[in-house]
């Protein structure tokens, strides 16, 4: 879907349009629920039917945060790791974020660097030892393995595990000395699967009628990586030690507490970055209009502006309708100059109710991202609204189609050029859907600047929403404000956001077995009036978050 | 200053910089094996990929009289010094894309070096709404690495220039079905990986290896023990990871870092792998370091990709400001777009020229490293505007120990799986099929 947003060019869309013929398409239902029916329809919730809980490899962001929390090492050692594979923008997808040779090699290099720094700086705190004999030092090593190992593995070591690392330690201690033994044992711990993966599917001793409750340590890790992008903090660890996380009340208490930590702020930014696919702003290349200075490197400014807007919506307004109605735009000096808004000499400041600015859909960063280098991007913007906000996937053309599009006419305006799609009877079906959603954004150019004229002609920002399954959303509209008002009230938008948070939390795309948990999450989100924190807490309380199916070998 | 002026290395460096933007400080170098008389030199393979098709009329040889009598076309003029080492292969199709899931760019890039269809599934959706998974098989570089890369510190090196699309549209190399290999986009990371071990003496290296071995032995034991406690699908992931740890340990033990015949290049300056302006420098650094890695026998297998299919990047150093994929769709009547596309593809060809030049300057036995290197260059479609998978722009360079080079060959609707078989054979891997077996008739005819 990321590609669709980023790269859907006019010609590629032509092929789509040819395929769609002239009939208005019926989009596939949003994940989990058809668009025009309550999500409960057709969903039979059976007790103890739970989706799989696959092991998940730490992402680069999770790795760095974990190392920082574990050792106070803020060097971001994952900068040498290859980027994660992505599904629908999310880089924590357990199906595609898997080991590869380069990553495994870099895990080794990172572990060597981390352990070397830790031992050089903190040996006496990490692994204090008064003894001098090999036996005494081996005993100190066992304490180190037990204490550091527990924090690194996010659960106490099993007897076998402790023995394995103690053996490694004492052997190294005899041959290479105490400090090297600590260092190398730490390297081994940091390359072990118990550190690199969250092992939610590790066999548990108890089974409830075919469904297995995750143990308190597994729940703690699930919660901490979802809500803080890192390992459990000491309070959460304490709750896990006490076995308290089998209680939903305790989970809720901990979830609300974690959402107040500074790591939660970073987590929300990480989610927004992936949900809205803001990596497209890295290396943003836009042709400045005549008379404007070069805009190289401005993508980072746009991203910060957008993240500050999203921070404010999440942490200060706190609800979904505000995403579409908050009147703030955040600008620094560079963006202020480009956008014609007053800005501070250094840092960012909010401008309230600037002309044409209301809500996410008018954000300069979003509009600049969803554009071509030299013109606006009605197609990208339309696809963004359909896919990211409404969870409507663009239907694929039939197999074997290989259309040759006509030469584009360079003498047309943006809208006229794109209107070729909808004028042709063979193209009109799909393009009414896509361009209809996107033409309403014509007040924003490729730099996200608000405009009422293009090339001396008045901007036509009329569009049409269709196929959403919601009469209150469907129909002609003009401009982003009108579209925002509709989307702010749309149950489908609410469900779509809940689905995206759910995917982020679970590290996978939902399956049929997630249906009941997802429905419950959506209902709680709706009942709260679209409060983001209630949505996140609801995910941690869902059965899918707390249980997994039995696997052979469970007893 | 006299000394500097007399230094042939420096003047060559200046030449390279002028020619293609390469700015790495190139060391004086001879092949690690140069002194070993009578030795069989290792063969090396590079897969090269550039996206979104080409301008065929400026790409394929012109004035073709016979397979040995032809002229390089506009795009490839810089390759003139190496004309007798080239093989243009016209009329070879990506027949593997005729069926199976995925969009045209997705299927093309996935099948290019694997000879396989994409896996079905909903993982990736392309710009036209097509859905697919990863390619369903190993790529030829990795198949060849199984035998050719035994004993090198690095099994294979995947290099990318703004190859930052982390899904099926951005991957050309696969370790197996659904197991793509991510490219490195940052030359400073490549430098660290290849050359950070240089400068250590034999004792230091032996100690490092011993330490790593004891650590990795314990790590492997942990993988085995955890694998037994998870679901079968998770078991597969952990066992795959364990295999990689084992491979890492075995390569470490056989490394040749620090040999006196190998000199690490200068540490590259910090660059932004997402920056369009840094692309020429990054490409130059990547290829120069790759040449050094070959000479030092750090690796024998590599892939080099310039961006990804369906990219939207500009080439500002060529004053080409169109967006990659959209630009490739401009019809033949758009003269400006045509010129932009030709200039980009000319630059791609120049990168190959620079690389071949570098290899040809590194002595190895009585010849050079180029004598023992094969480059296969391909694209996921033949022409951006048509998305055609017929007559993909395939060009081979080198491989003279096996192929009769210096020719431009014309095939007719021949499946590229046969070409992949030929490459396998050239690299010493016996095979009669590769990828989708029913698309193979054995090696491509007329090459040897």
Give an overview of the whole structure.
The complex is a heterodimer of chains A (555) and B (448). Helices cover 51% and strands 5% of the residues of chain A. Chain A has helices spanning 2-7, 10-20, 60-71, 101-126, 134-153, 159-176, 178-191, 193-196, 216-228, 234-241, 248-258, 262-275, 299-317, 320-325, 333-339, 364-369, 378-389, 414-423, 428-438, 479-488, 491-506, 515-527, 532-541, 543-546; strands spanning 56-57, 197-198, 211-213, 328-331, 349-352, 453-454, 457-458, 462-465, 475-478, 547-549. In chain A, a hairpin with a 2-residue loop joins strand 6 and strand 7. The two termini of chain A are 41 Å apart. Chain B has 448 residues and is an alpha/beta fold. Chain B has a single domain, classed as Alkaline Phosphatase, subunit A, CATH 3.40.720. Chain B has 12 helices and 15 strands. Chain B has helices at residues 2-6, 8-20, 56-59, 104-112, 140-148, 187-195, 202-227, 232-252, 279-295, 324-328, 335-360, 416-426, and strands at 44-49, 62-66, 69-71, 86-93, 124-125, 131-132, 157-161, 174-176, 179-180, 301-306, 363-364, 367-368, 373-378, 394-398, 407-415. In chain B, the strands form 5 sheets. Chain B has a 7-stranded mixed beta sheet, with helices on both faces. In chain B, strand 5 and strand 6 form a beta hairpin.
Structural class of chain B comes to alpha/beta
Tell me what portion of residues of chain A adopts beta-strand conformation: 5-15%
Instruction: Describe the strand arrangement of the main beta sheet of chain B, using strand numbers.
Output: 7-10-1-13-14-4-15
CATH topology of chain B: Alkaline Phosphatase, subunit A
Main β-sheet description of chain A: 2 strands, antiparallel
Helix content of chain A: 40-55%
The number of distinct β-strands of chain B equals 15
Rounded mean pLDDT of chain A is: 87
Please indicate the percent range of residues of chain B in DSSP E strands (runs of 2 or more).
5-15%
Helix-residue proportion of chain B? 25-40%
Q: Looking at the structure, what is the overall shape of chain B?
A: globular
Gross CATH architecture of chain B: 3-Layer(aba) Sandwich
Uncertain parts of chain B: 1-25, 256-260
Overall pLDDT of chain B: 89
Count of runs of 4 or more consecutive helical residues of chain A: 24
Broad shape of chain A: globular
